[in-house]
Amino acid sequence: MHCPFCRHPDSRVIDSRTSDDGLVIRRRRQCPECGRRFSTVETASLTVLKRSGVAEPFSREKVAAGVRKACQGRPVTDDDLAILAQKVEEAVRGTGAAQIDTNDIGLAILGPLRELDEVAYLRFASVYQAFDSLDDFDAAIARLRADHAAGGAVED
Prior knowledge:
Elements: E1 12-19, E2 24-30, E3 37-43, E4 47-49, E5 55-57, H1 60-70, H2 78-94, E6 99-101, H3 102-116, H4 118-128, H5 134-149
Helix pairs in contact: 1-2, 2-3, 3-4
C-alpha cells in the first residue's frame, strides 16, 4: 500500500476493524517514511456474469428487486426481502468464487424464498428451474406437501 502523502511503497497496519456484516475491513495505517496516518477500506469483490457475457458487481438490491416481482400481492415486506438478499449474498460468497453466473444466484434464492413464501417460491422456481408444463408445477407442489407432512424440512 503506497502512502498517499509521500508515495512510499510500504505502510504498517495499526488497527483493523470489520463492518457491514464482516464484508468490509477498515484498516488504519502509518507510513514508516513520513509517519503520517491514513485509512484504507478493503472489500472482497464478487462479480456476476450475466447471460450476455457482461460482468458487473453483485448487488443485494438487484436480488431484492428480482424477488419482489415474484412476491407481488403476497404478505412480504421490504425488510423480508432485504434479509433474503443478505442470505443469498452470504450463500454466494460462501462458495468462495469471485465470479458467479446469474443463474446460480437465481438458484441460491430458491431456498430462502421457499422459507419466506411458498407461492412466491413457486412463481420464482417456475422461471429458474425452467418449468415446461403443469406436471412441473404439480411435482413442485407435491414436494412442498411432502415436506409439510414430514415436519417442514426444506430441501433444494
